[in-house]
Structure formats: C-alpha cells, structure tokens
Write a structure and sequence with these properties.
Elements: H1 6-15, H2 30-33, H3 39-52, E1 55-59, E2 62-66, E3 70-71, E4 75-76, H4 85-92, H5 101-107
Antiparallel strand pairs: 1-2, 3-4
Length: 109
C-alpha cells in the first residue's frame, strides 16, 4: 500500500477545521472527496466519514460507540463491527499525528 500524500492530510484538515466542536459525517463531503486522487485516499476518507457517523456515549470514563442512526427493523448506519481487515489496513497507513484532534480521537486505539 502506498503512503498517503500531503494532499490527503490537507483535505482532512480542511474538512475538520479547528473551529469544529463536534465530529460529524457531514464534514466529510463529496467536495472534499473529489480533491483526492488515489483510491487508497478516497477509501480512507470514506472510512473516516463512517467513523465520524458513530454515536459516542461516555460512561465512567469509557467511550462506548454505536451506530448514529438505528431504524428498528430497517437497518442502521455504520458500526465498528462493520470494519473489515482492509479498513484496519487503511488505518494502519495513517500518520495519526497529522490528523485533526477530533478524528484522531476516534482512530487511535
């Protein structure tokens, strides 16, 4: 897998600006996605969008992640259990220190 370009980190930084107080999947718009050139970067950007869609509940100092939307009997949005080996491989290619804090907090284990 090739390394990520500076353009990738610039696009993610623009999508999740320093003024953002909350992470939301809507920050990862198609306009930003279209600025990326490699399939790896596009796939990772879409994965970040999915990760940003998760609902986070903090209880006793522990973060609990769940789908942002659950339509009982109809389905749900992205859940951590949906992640594939390819997704984990994509995440391993990221220089997390170069990510905005809001997304970094979601992808660092």
């Amino acid at each position: 897998m090739n390394g990520l370009t500076d353009i990738f980190y610039d696009v993610v930084d623009s999508a999740v600006s320093k003024e953002c107080k909350r992470l939301s999947s809507s920050l990862f718009s198609e306009d930003y996605l279209n600025e990326l050139t490699t399939n790896q970067e596009k796939a990772l950007f879409k994965l970040f969008r999915n990760i940003a869609s998760l609902s986070v509940k903090f209880e006793k100092g522990v973060a609990e992640y769940s789908p942002g939307i659950i339509l009982y009997g109809e389905g749900r949005t992205f859940d951590l259990s949906d992640m594939t080996e390819e997704d984990y491989s994509l995440l391993s290619s990221v220089n997390v220190k170069s990510l905005p804090t809001l997304i970094r907090a979601r992808v660092v284990c």
